[in-house]
Task: inverse folding
């Protein structure tokens, strides 16, 4: 398939993207359900009990994928914001708006499940270590983006202001990711990285990756429905 | 069966995590479908 066959600029128009977004959301919703069923099955019935932590480690099957999604969605949101600023395309700002609530939700889930895991494992619900604090800042960045874009009436000014906030805030993402290396945190280091073999059983890793795929597909499905709402509300 | 739900004594932490996660995702879907209906998207 050549670049011409994928009609990027054709789909850059909200009106032509509208039906495509509907098809993508339906496909992603089905895949999300399938991956979630497989991931939960492996997470609860196939993966063994952890030798050190016992059953409580099973929180990681949602905690780690949610934390990944919280960072990944923010980066995608910032990229759409940058494209919107550079090319002045209306759909880009709509994509950024469509992603923010789901990104905030996964950030909250990462913090919530981390807290419930930390209590029995560390003996505390919360510590102000670098990983937890920077993830909390990410939640406030999402809230800030949503509040800012909602509070300015003029659409283009609102989108420009939101885009600037999203782009500046992206500096927080490497801080979250590398916080466990840069600072002496209570939070453990990465269990899965690009450079080393994973430090966990293969079935545990499989369950975690399946849940990550499920959350990924869920995010696509929800964001595509939300971008359709954005398009319809602006037209209507 | 009850052994499964007991989660080796960690039931509160496990089901507190999974319950809140899936409840929140469900709420997001419900709110979004309501918005979709109203926007006729």
Result:
């Amino acid at each position: 398939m050549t670049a011409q066959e994928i009609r990027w600029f054709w789909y850059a128009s909200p009106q032509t993207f509208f039906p495509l977004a509907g098809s993508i959301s339906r496909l992603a919703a089905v895949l999300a359900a399938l991956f979630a069923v497989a991931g939960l099955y492996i997470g609860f019935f196939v993966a063994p009990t952890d030798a050190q932590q016992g059953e409580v480690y099973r929180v990681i099957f949602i905690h780690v994928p949610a934390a990944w999604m919280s960072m990944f969605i923010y980066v995608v949101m910032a990229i759409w914001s940058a494209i919107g600023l550079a090319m002045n395309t209306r759909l880009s700002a709509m994509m950024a708006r469509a992603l923010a609530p789901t990104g905030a939700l996964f950030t909250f889930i990462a913090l919530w499940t981390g807290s419930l895991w930390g209590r029995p494992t560390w003996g505390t619900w919360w510590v102000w270590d670098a990983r937890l604090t920077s993830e909390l800042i990410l939640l406030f960045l999402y809230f800030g983006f949503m509040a800012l874009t909602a509070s300015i009436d003029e659409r283009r000014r609102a989108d420009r202001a939101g885009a600037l906030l999203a782009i500046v805030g992206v500096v927080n993402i490497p801080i979250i990711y590398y916080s466990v290396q840069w600072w002496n945190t209570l939070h453990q280091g990465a269990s899965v990285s690009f450079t080393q073999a994973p430090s966990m059983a293969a079935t545990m890793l499989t369950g975690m990756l399946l849940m990550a795929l499920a959350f990924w597909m869920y995010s696509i499905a929800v964001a595509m429905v939300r971008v359709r709402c954005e398009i319809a509300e602006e037209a209507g | 069966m009850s052994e499964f739900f007991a989660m080796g004594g960690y039931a509160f932490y496990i089901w507190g995590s999974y319950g809140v996660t899936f409840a929140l995702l469900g709420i997001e879907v419900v709110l979004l479908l309501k918005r979709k209906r109203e926007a006729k998207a």
Chain B has one domain: 2-39. The helical segments of chain B are 2-6, 11-39. The interface with chain A takes residues 4, 7-10, 12-14, 16-18, 20-21, 24-25, 28-29, 32-33, 35-36, 39-41 of chain B (CB under 8 Å).
